[in-house]
Amino acid sequence: MSGTGNLNAKTVIVTGATSGMGKALSLRAAADGAHVILAGRNEKAGREIVSVIEGEGGTAAFVPTDVTVEKDAEALVENALRLAGRIDCVFNNAGAMTTDGLVPDLETASWRLGIETNLTSVFFGLKYQIPAMVAGGGGAIVNNASLLGVRGQAGASAYVAAKHGVVGLTRAAALEFAAQGVRVNALVTGPVDTPALCSTTGVTGREAIVADAAAHTPVGRVGDPEEVAAFAAFLLGDETKFITGAALTIDGGMSA
User: Fold this and answer.
1) Using CA atoms, how far apart are residues 73 and 81, in angstroms rounded to an integer?
2) How many CB atoms lie within 10 A of CB 117?
3) Where are the beta strands (DSSP E) in the chain?
4) Where does residue 74 rank: exposed (0-12), middle (13-18), buried (19+ CB within 10 A)?
5) What's the pLDDT tens digit per position in 36-61?
6) Is the pTM above the cut of 0.70?
7) Dihedral angle at the C-alpha atoms of 6, 12, 17, 18, nearest 10 degrees?
8) Which of 231, 239, 191, 240 is nearest to 29 (CA)?
9) Is 182:139 a contact under the CB 8 Å cutoff?
10) Is 68 helix (H, G, I), strand (E, B) or coil?
């Protein structure tokens, strides 16, 4: 890999890196010339992506990580510093869509799972990522908040609440560390053609799910993971140093 892109010579952590948008950003960052630290629970898939990156001349490592476990979040940062010496950029992408029924019917365990998976996990990440960035002179973080971080959806209250929380957490952290050179932004992503999309509707079959999601999108299609990766890479790079505390939309016009 030539190392001439937006993230050239940067160390980039990607959580939820083994599929979908996380995988796309991992490959994009490596192609840009970054040292990529992939994090996730699927070790086999993670190591396969590392092999692809290394086979193309890039630099990458996989760190088995469950982002809902605080010790794992801390260990991920420690491993990234050990492997690369610094942390410049992070894409906090790990999460899982939950559809739990109406609020009165929601089991407390389901509520807690949705919050822990999609909000507490980001908090754990920021708790250890930010001090490492401050010590290194600054950096950039992008949290994947989803379209449901700015609007509602019936039957998905825990997920909606968690993703709204990610937007709020992003803004608070951005204000707290702007003076220290750490930028924190959120992505408001619409339907993207990833394995996770299949869990967000009652439609069965991948082609039917994609078609159903496309029918609800003003541009008439779902997004590609590579499109999100390109946007995230732009936000993580040096050309966007004046952007922090923002919730930026990439949703095919759905929030318009």
Assistant:
1) 13
2) 20
3) 11-15, 35-40, 59-64, 89-92, 139-144, 182-189, 247-250
4) middle
5) 999 999 999 999 999 999 999 999 99
6) yes
7) 80
8) 231
9) yes
10) coil
Residue 194 confidence class, pLDDT cut points 50, 70, 90: confident
pLDDT value of residue 200:
52
Give the pairing type, strands 182-189 and 139-144.
parallel
The catalytic site residues sit at 159
Whether residue 216 is predicted with pLDDT greater than 90 in this model: the reply is: no
Per residue in 163-189, pLDDT (tens digit) is 999 999 999 999 999 999 999 999 999
DSSP state of 65: -
Inform me whether the pLDDT recorded for 4 exceeds 80: no
Averaged pLDDT, 229-238: 97
Among candidate residues 98, 139, 142, the one with its CA nearest the CA of residue 248:
142
When the pLDDT of each residue in the chain is averaged and rounded to a whole number, the result is 93
pLDDT at 236 over 90: yes
Provide the pairing of β-strand 139-144 with 11-15: unpaired
Q: For residues 131 and 243, what is the distance between their CA atoms, to the nearest angstrom?
A: 20
The domain covering 11-97+112-190+225-249 belongs, at the CATH homologous superfamily level, to: NAD(P)-binding Rossmann-like Domain (3.40.50.720)
Secondary element (H or E) of residue 212: helix 206-215
Q: Where are the domains of the chain?
A: 11-97+112-190+225-249
Q: Where are the alpha helices (DSSP H) in 92-177?
A: 108-115, 121-135, 157-177
* Structure tokens belonging to residue 209: 């799910």
